[in-house]
Design brief:
three-stranded antiparallel sheet; alpha+beta; signal; 3 helices; 174 residues; CueP-like
Length: 174
């Protein structure tokens, strides 16, 4: 509940930009998780361009300001499961990347193959851009992500190092 309250507080802070503050300086006050939530809310609005890298989030705003938010403790991965169409992507642009399964519930399970432990199993709703956002442990080499949707499944093994991807668009549901 604390995490949700922090996210709500961060989004409210961002929504209450003062006339004197730049969008970039206000955005930099957010945690990485809050910044990604806000970026998803800006999807398709042309208010900002927000790109997610393994170690930071970078944003360029309509007012000309810029912001970087460091990511230190988790690895962000945005996954767009698909049935018919996909596109190549390496580092997620939350405000621009788009996929076909928007606003649908998917089952997401993550396994750490190095120690055979399940890290996550839950239902998630894809964002307006068709992605689900995961915050996974850093510096792992064999994390298997399984996504279920309407009796179909997609499976992929991922890594979460400093140069690994944050945008996964090749998980075809079959």
């Amino acid at each position: 509940m604390k995490a949700i309250n922090k996210l709500v507080a961060g989004v409210m802070l961002l929504a209450s930009f003062s006339a004197l503050a730049s969008q970039g300086s206000e955005f930099e006050k957010l945690t990485p998780e809050q910044a990604l939530v806000q970026a998803n809310q800006w999807y398709g609005s042309n208010q900002a361009s927000v790109q997610i890298f393994p170690t930071y989030i970078t944003a360029n705003f309509a007012d000309g300001s810029h912001a970087n938010i460091p990511i230190t403790d988790k690895h962000p991965i945005s996954i767009a499961p698909y049935i018919n169409h996909s596109h190549p992507c390496d580092f997620h642009v939350a405000t621009g990347c788009t996929r076909e399964l928007k606003g649908v519930k998917v089952g997401v399970t993550v396994y750490d193959e190095s120690n055979h432990k399940q890290l996550m199993q839950k239902m998630m709703t894809t964002n307006p851009n068709g992605f689900v956002d995961l915050w996974l442990p850093k510096d792992k080499k064999n994390l298997t992500v399984v996504i279920h949707y309407k009796g179909k499944e997609a499976r992929k093994t991922l890594a979460t190092g400093k140069t690994d991807l944050t945008c996964i668009t090749d998980m075809k549901l079959i």
